[in-house]
């Protein structure tokens, strides 16, 4: 093992620079090949671990039959319907907490409790309240997403530098303009961080809620195939959920670039 | 009112907020503003708590959940720190494991849990495994960042005085990485609790996570809230503990 720390860094050779992607790709490729060999030759029972080529075939089959599309759309719909209100309400609420210290102190313990609680534990009670259909999933997405957005918005607004507000006020801005021209742009990075956190929590809670009980959706598919012990289908669905999460992260990044182009230049 | 210090005001208002919520909840439940059968009420939760406590159910569930929590978390702490140091010190190891760690970090592991059930069966082992998987990644990533933050000068100093590989790790790298490891632990503890609940809810027949789902299925909402509130308190307590440790470390380093 070579010590990477403490050794003086030599000027990077082109070989060195290529090392990261090359070694990374090689590791992933050898893992996939090993998996394929072990699975396809039944060295370990393939219904337990499946293997890459079977997963690829399953993915194609599930896409063609429309099974995947239908369920992805259902999950996506629940996510959007829960998360957009969570963003709007969360930012408004966070703003109110930041502007009123008393209000913030009043609600701090409740939000601390909601923030550090494992969100999944709320799934059963939410199902009791909102039923087994779409409503309980939308409520779960909202609940899981809104808390970090509120907390981060409140923190972000508090940390907007006083000089921004004074500068805007010096040019004759009213209270509303101070909020839209100084406070919201200044708090944007923190708000976006809260939204990113919220997305992660919301996806996990949504999938958990669908797995717990539902009629349509990726989580339900996962539950169905796990009951019938189908590893290949589950791996496909794991991939789908990952891509979904990744897509959200990328969409948020481009939204942030659009809303705050001055930050991208740094 | 200015005579109140900020800290007191914070405490008083916070308490007031919680009390007001419970009073309002109790009032609404007793006056049929909300449906007691599904929303229950604070007094009913207290009664349910006493009943669960006296029957020993609550202690039993608590023991199961905390046991899984502790085993899963300690396993991921030991393995996570060891792997994180290996990845931080060797570029080869880092480059080779990076894609897998990244996948585990960003993939919703909840979707993988059915496979873990298939591999390990229902119950204790699965819950611990889910907890371990959810926790270990944040500890690995943070430990690695901690190792990267070590001043190379310090490593060279130990080597100059004849320190061997082991001395470098125990005398320089481990102590210097501690703050970041603790930050990883704080994230990890939250994820560990999530793992316990997830595992118990879907693949166990004991523990607080199982109870939440079990009582909800029987519409015993007061009992659901007992388990839920205990889980929230565990989350708050572990988070506070980490904050204290972080504060101590800050003071010790300064």
List the helices and strands and how they pair.
The complex is a heterodimer of chains A (266) and B (254).
Chain A (H helix, E strand, L loop, with lengths): L13 H27 L5 H4 L2 H13 L2 H33 L1 H16 L6 H8 L3 H25 L3 H9 L4 H38 L5 H10 L3 H29 L1 H4 L2
Helix pairs in contact in A: 3-11, 4-5, 4-7, 4-9, 4-10, 6-7, 7-9, 8-9, 9-10, 9-11, 10-11
Chain B lengths: L5 H25 L5 H4 L2 H14 L1 H33 L1 H16 L6 H8 L3 H25 L3 H9 L4 H39 L4 H10 L3 H33 L1
Helix pairs in contact in B: 3-11, 4-5, 4-7, 4-9, 6-7, 7-9, 8-9, 9-10, 9-11, 10-11
Structure description:
The complex is a heterodimer of chains A (266) and B (254). With 266 residues, chain A is mainly alpha-helical. In chain A, helix 6 crosses helix 7 (134-158) and helix 7 runs antiparallel to helix 9. Chain A has helices at 14-40, 46-49, 52-64, 67-99, 101-116, 123-130, 134-158, 162-170, 175-212, 218-227, 231-259, 261-264. Chain A is built from twelve helices and no strands. Chain A is globular, with a radius of gyration of 24 Å. Chain A has one domain (60-264): MetI-like (MetI-like fold, Orthogonal Bundle), CATH 1.10.3720.10. Helices cover 85% and strands 0% of the residues of chain B. In chain B, helix 4 runs antiparallel to helix 5. The mean pLDDT of chain B is 88. With 254 residues, chain B is mostly helical. Chain B has two domains: 1-34; 42-253, MetI-like fold. At the A-B interface, helix 1, helix 5, helix 6, helix 9 and helix 10 of A face helix 1, helix 4, helix 5, helix 6 and helix 8 of B.
């Amino acid at each position: 093992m070579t010590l990477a720390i403490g050794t003086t860094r030599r000027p990077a050779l082109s070989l060195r620079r290529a090392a990261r992607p090359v070694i990374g790709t090689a590791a992933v490729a050898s893992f996939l090949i090993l998996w394929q060999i072990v699975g396809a030759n039944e060295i370990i029972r393939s219904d337990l671990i499946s293997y890459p080529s079977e997963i690829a075939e399953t993915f194609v089959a599930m896409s063609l039959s429309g099974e995947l599309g239908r369920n992805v759309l259902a999950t996506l719909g629940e996510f959007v319907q829960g998360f957009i209100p969570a963003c709007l309400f969360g930012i408004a609420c966070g703003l109110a907490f930041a502007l009123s210290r008393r209000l913030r102190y009043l609600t701090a313990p409740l939000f601390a409790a909601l923030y550090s609680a494992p969100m999944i534990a709320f799934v059963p009670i939410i199902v009791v309240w909102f039923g087994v259909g779409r409503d309980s999933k939308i409520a779960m997405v909202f609940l899981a997403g809104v808390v970090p957005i509120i907390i981060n918005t409140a923190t972000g607004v508090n940390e907007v530098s006083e000089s921004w507000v004074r500068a805007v006020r010096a040019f004759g801005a009213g209270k509303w303009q101070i909020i839209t021209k100084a406070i919201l742009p200044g708090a944007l990075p923190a708000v976006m961080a809260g939204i990113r956190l919220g997305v992660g929590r919301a996806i996990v809670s949504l999938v958990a809620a669908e797995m717990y009980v539902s009629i349509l959706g990726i989580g339900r598919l996962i539950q169905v195939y796990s009951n019938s012990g189908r590893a290949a289908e589950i791996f496909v669905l794991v991939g789908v959920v990952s891509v979904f999460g990744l897509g959200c992260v990328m969409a948020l990044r481009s939204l942030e670039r659009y809303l705050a182009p001055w930050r991208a230049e740094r | 009112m200015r005579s109140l210090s900020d800290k007191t005001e914070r405490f008083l208002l916070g308490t007031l907020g919680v009390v007001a919520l419970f009073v309002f909840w109790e009032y609404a439940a007793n006056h049929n503003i909300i449906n007691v059968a599904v929303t229950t009420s604070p007094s009913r939760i207290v009664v349910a708590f006493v009943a669960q406590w006296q029957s020993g159910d609550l202690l039993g569930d608590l023991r199961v959940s905390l046991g899984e929590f502790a085993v899963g978390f300690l396993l991921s702490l030991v393995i996570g720190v060891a792997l994180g140091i290996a990845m931080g010190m060797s570029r080869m190891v880092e480059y080779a494991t990076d894609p897998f760690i990244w996948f585990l970090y960003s993939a919703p592991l909840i979707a993988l849990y059915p496979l873990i059930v298939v591999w390990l069966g229902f119950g204790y082992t699965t819950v611990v495994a889910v907890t371990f998987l959810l926790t270990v990644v944040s500890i690995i990533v943070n430990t690695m960042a901690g190792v990267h933050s070590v001043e190379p000068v310090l490593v060279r100093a130990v080597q100059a005085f004849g320190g061997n590989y082991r001395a470098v790790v125990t005398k320089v790298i481990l102590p210097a990485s501690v703050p970041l490891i603790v930050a990883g632990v704080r994230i990890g503890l939250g994820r560990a609790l999530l793992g316990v609940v997830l595992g118990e809810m879907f693949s166990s027949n004991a523990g607080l996570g199982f109870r939440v789902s079990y009582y909800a299925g029987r519409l015993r909402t007061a009992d659901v809230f007992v388990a839920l509130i205990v889980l929230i308190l565990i989350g708050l307590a572990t988070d506070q503990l980490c904050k204290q440790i972080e504060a101590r470390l800050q003071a010790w380093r300064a």
